[in-house]
């Protein structure tokens, strides 16, 4: 999908599958696997058998088996399988604890983790083979084994077992599908199946996944803190508690050190991200050799006196307050303050001239990374410890020189050997100033991100990304991130990114198409080979039901409006922080056309009002949520076209919808009450 979404085709293309022979257990037969092997070598063979997991008469010989040493994740995974199988068949599989039961020779189990049956099978499931979130599902005798190197893999393997076994799919907390086997029973599949995610850490972040870690886990996200569910969602994220502004706020907090060491910082005096100070990178770097490392006593480092200088104080605080404490974490963020302030002292000015701003920051990060690696090797060589450095705002441009090779193709080379990132550094790229109507690697429309991604690839080997999927200045207008979502995710994969953070609105949910976007991005982050249009069509069809054709039409119409009108007429490219709701960008014709599409959407679900009132209310709410943008345009831009009585109805409808949906305002800080009061005052 390069420039515009084509009309989504409602019928899926048939996939020609190769014939394979696979046998195990009773009642096996030669079948054509309905899940093809992936191009990247995963073995995903699934065949039918005549063995019943649940019988047509509502009974079962099977149970869910937990190992002697089980975790909250094992128990939760068992409950998820139990509930979904019950939804599909009205049969409740019992849960059996190996520590309490002599199972003997019985193997009629869905076995989770390192049970005696899994041990007897000889199946291997190392982290080296499957990564930290991967899993294997294998048939062995009468059992189906779900095994994984980490507890998260047990949970994800359980969800994949349900997807393949009973046509389960999770779209949203209020939209969970299973097949209907209540009269036929469920015939057990025969599995030789392995899978792991294309990105090791995945967080489709917004209010819905932040506030509901169960939702995140069911979407295969692992970028949350698993302790939110008492550990039942797996081991969780590999990110430590150092946040995105950790340098001056956490590691060497300016409220502790600034009074005694004002030369460590540059910028504001605090109070907001825009005024928070940055650190002086050169003061930090060159103080390494000016001061003795010392004995790392608490009094000598973690205090305002800092007798050993800025560098060693920084390293001590980082290691002893975070790395040594958060032993289950691997990523420790060296986060700059959220502004473009950069030190202009004499040393920084001289170094910036030689290395560039990002080079100055990276040279300091390299020095810290060297000390962290020495500490790791001496104290915990088994741990994986990485420092992450933002490529963001003032340091987004890589420390490289762009030239051309003998064929005229661009080449990026480091400005100096000292700006090549250490192996234990991850560059976390944040394309905040780029455009989302077009892919980030679109050289014509996104030259800055094109140069940034290619330049950073020349100086580093480990990458993460923090990108944006909403317009944070005016959240009520549909932000066309869907235009470039697939291309960007595929680019991250091709460029070797291992961690993806897709930022949405954190303070409230129900922004435009966010539920669909949560689902589609989550599936792509696990497997970039999934078809984006098919995922979109599937999610919209299920989520909006009878109103789905109109929701697809609205999305397509808005896409064409953005591309053929806003981009071609005004050069608009969709920045994630800009005010763009005005009569020029959204003429009344656009608003009226959208209103007409929604009138048909409401008419389409009307039939359920009597036949299925509960479903009707759910669908009406979902359509209401998507109608918020055009309703806002009515009231913010086009009041003069309506009578006072019509406007009062419009305001009441708008106010009722945003209140029910919890939509707090135009940006993350709210303001909806003031907006509605302004509409009422105008009347």
Report on the architecture of this protein.
The chain is α/β, with parallel strands linked by helices. The chain is 39% helix and 15% strand. The protein contains 22 helices and 21 strands. A seven-stranded mixed β-sheet has the order 1-9-5-6-4-2-3. It has a six-stranded parallel β-sheet with strand order 10-19-18-17-14-13. β2, α1 (72-89) and β3 form a beta-alpha-beta unit. Mean pLDDT is 91; it is low at 1-39.
Task: Give a quick summary of the entry.
The chain has 683 residues and is of the alpha/beta class.
Largest beta-sheet characterization: 7 strands, mixed
Ends distance: 45 Å
* Silhouette: globular
The count of β-strands is: 21
Count, helices: 22
Helix content: 25-40%
What is the structural class? alpha/beta
The averaged pLDDT comes out at: 91
Task: Provide keyphrases for this structure.
disordered N terminus, globular, six-stranded parallel β-sheet, 683 residues, 21 strands, alpha/beta, seven-stranded mixed β-sheet
How are the SSEs placed, and which strands pair?
Elements: E1 44-54, E2 63-66, H1 72-89, E3 95-97, E4 109-112, H2 116-121, H3 127-130, E5 135-140, E6 143-147, H4 151-166, E7 169-172, E8 175-177, E9 186-195, E10 201-205, H5 207-211, H6 213-218, H7 246-251, H8 254-257, E11 265-266, E12 278-279, H9 281-286, H10 298-301, H11 309-323, E13 331-334, H12 346-379, E14 386-391, E15 400-404, E16 410-414, E17 425-429, H13 447-457, E18 463-468, H14 485-494, E19 497-503, H15 514-526, H16 532-544, H17 548-570, H18 588-605, H19 608-611, H20 613-637, H21 644-661, E20 665-667, E21 670-671, H22 672-681
Parallel strand pairs: 2-3, 2-4, 4-6, 10-19, 13-14, 14-17, 17-18, 18-19
Antiparallel strand pairs: 1-9, 5-6, 5-9, 7-8, 11-12, 15-16, 20-21
